[in-house]
Amino acid sequence: MSAEPMLVSRQLARDPWWRDAVVYQVYLRSFADGNGDGIGDLAGLRTRLPYLASLGVDAVWVTPHYVSGGADGGYDVIDYTAVDPSYGTVEDVRALVTDAHALGLRVLLDIVPNHTSDQHEWFQQALADPSSPFADLYHFMPPSESPPNNWQSMFGGPAWSRTPDGRWYLHLFTPQQPDLNWDEPAVADAFDEVLRFWFDLGVDGFRVDVAYGLFKDPAYRDNPGIYSPTLFGHGPEQAMTTNQPRVHQIWRRWRSVADSYPGDRMLVGEVSLADLDEVGLYARPDELHHAFQFRLLKSDWDAAAFADTITEALAAFDRVGAPAPWVLGNHDKARQVTRYGSERRARAAAMLMLALPGSAYLYAGEELGLPEAFVPDEARRDPIFFRSNGKRAGRDGCRIPMPWESLTRNAGFTSGTPWLPIPANWPAYAVDRQAVDPSSTLALYQQAILLRDLYPALGSGQASVTLTDGVIRVDLTSRFGDPDPITCYINMGSDPVAVPATQVLLASSPDVPAAADGSVTLAPDTTIWVRL
Ligand code: GLC
Ligand code: CA
């Protein structure tokens, strides 16, 4: 079969581009340092865009680049229309967008509407004067002995802290991240302007932080339960602090701002809710383009858990006519290699994800098979570690700088001192080594993304999922009923299994015996894409 007709139908299938995009999450502080101060920045990222283009991804999502208090890795924003000097300038963002577009890459920024930094001008005004109109933009409560209710910070401890004059204010994350009061119209108006500022500059969209948050119970009633980070996401136990129905009106509003610009701008929300049908509501046709569901990310290496999640997520997003976004790793979660127990499993999981219809989100470094890094306590930066008194390790281990060059100091990330220590074994994972090794994890990601671009059945269209003896089988067809269906198998069991296949298109590990008599033998912890 010639590749050309498939390419044509694939291009049709890619309209609009975000339906089945592969999006690469850049952790800005750790990606590439352009000026030798040990901190990744926009100039560094620009020099590495050709790498992302050669990986084959469609878009780059950049973690917060705004002026920040630095209390939570940039998710505590002081000024939403200015760039933190450690990352560069607004002109650097413009140049990033220009360079990215020239390479066929889109740029998504990260926007943080649930809370600001405590150093934000609004909060400073509110602190200085309780009767200031700025105080209405946050959740303040009058002085009292104990916190106004039982709400807990997701990073540990009560969600209420006191101002110097004794008032309480709400922060679902650190005390340096006061929650905004979205019932005040001025808040929504201000964020419209922020969106327009960056859209006007040419960015293609936003990843929306804590999109299931924003609004809180107007009567500040107690939550029925305590959030546990081990859950699939927030549920009824957090009913008073998450998933308030009023939030949907904001996503409709943001959608209309995005749609008022040419060129298919997009919004992807962080929707950390356990109930997939609830997540789907955020991706209704007039709301966010994508709503992250984290159930796969939070599933252990378990065939039934994976199969159920895939089936249920596909159904939930189908019900609202939205593409399903898939994610296996991000800057908040331990690296897949470590979570699943081997690089072999992480490779198998990645190929499964890249076969599924919808969009796939990759986290910088997963294409290199990076493990979770050991971080000595004295080097830790994540507030989760400190607020839990060391009981939760926090997220520094997945935020270690990228290894680019195996023989250069600091694996080529910086000529200075990296902001988090780079482990001694990092050079072994460096891009320059993997780029010339056809069996590397980088080569696997490249090939998988290329095949996804070539075959309309991969990453777009219909999937039907079956589970037998630890093997998940996903039958894939394009949205155009093309005659070239593809089947993806992943063996999550402990024994080799013979599966029907006449031709193997790609295997996550090399030891798949060639097709014979219409079947192949699939070793444990392996994924293959085949023709039957
Ligand atoms: C989101 C971000 C996380 C951040 C939190 C507070 O969950 O992904 O990194 O700490 O929001 O903004
Ligand atoms: Ca720098």
Shape: globular
Proportion of residues in extended strands: 15-25%
Q: Could you describe the largest sheet, including whether it forms a barrel?
A: 8 strands, parallel
Strand arrangement in the largest pleated sheet: 11-10-9-5-2-1-13-12
Helix residue percentage:
25-40%
Bound compounds, please? alpha-D-glucopyranose, calcium ion
For the terminal residues, how far apart are their CA atoms?
15 Å
Strand tally: 20
Number of helical segments with 4 or more residues = 15
The SS-based structural class is alpha/beta
Question: Uncertain spans, ≥5 residues at pLDDT below 50?
Answer: 1-11
Estimate the mean pLDDT confidence: 95
Q: Which value, in Å, is the CA radius of gyration?
A: 23 Å
Give a written overview of the molecule.
The chain has 15 helices and 20 strands. It has helices at residues 3-13, 28-31, 42-47, 49-55, 90-102, 121-128, 185-201, 247-259, 276-281, 303-319, 336-340, 343-355, 383-387, 431-435, 441-454; strands at 22-26, 59-62, 66-68, 77-83, 106-111, 140-141, 160-162, 168-170, 205-208, 266-270, 290-292, 325-327, 359-363, 462-468, 471-477, 486-491, 497-500, 503-507, 519-522, 526-531. The strands form five sheets. It has an eight-stranded parallel sheet. Helix 7 (185-201) runs parallel beside helix 8. The protein is globular, with a radius of gyration of 23 Å. Calcium ion binds at residues 33-35, 37, 39, 41.
